[in-house]
Description:
By secondary structure, the protein is of the alpha/beta class. It is about 25% helix and about 25% strand. It has 5 helices and 9 strands.
Amino acid sequence: MSVGPKPGDSFPEDVVFEYIPWAEEIDGFSACGVPINYNASKEWADKKVVLFALPGAFTPVCSARHVPGYMENLPKLREKGVDIVAVLAFNDAYVMSAWGKANKVTGDDILFLSDPDLKFSKSIGWAALDGYKSHTGRWAIVLDHGKVIYAQLERSKNVLEVSSAEAVLGAL
């Protein structure tokens, strides 16, 4: 993909994130799972997927509006044929897992994925530099059987317009 995916682009064949799968026995904050690789290219090849990214777990806009918007609209996304909803940030898999727990997300309702080295975000040109540190930009991509059908990057860090659940629903 070039800078910023566009509708009609194919999702790359080598996208691997890290995550800790939800399990009832590790649902509490004091219990940790083991991070594993999540081969998004393989897992998403035959599915309709909403992948949204944000600057970081436990941050104001991300925690107050971005993730809650997807949680509230999950039934509507499912009605539109979305098989998988995933959130991506640069935080490590442990932090992303804890954030899922803090949001009371169970099972695979929303996958909390890690792009710790920003490999994917940088590959599409949607990583962000905020002062001295890099992080994931705020964006949303919708895939349908490996093809991009929606891809939008927010105009600035604390803006939630084109990557919100409502915006994605409007595009489906």
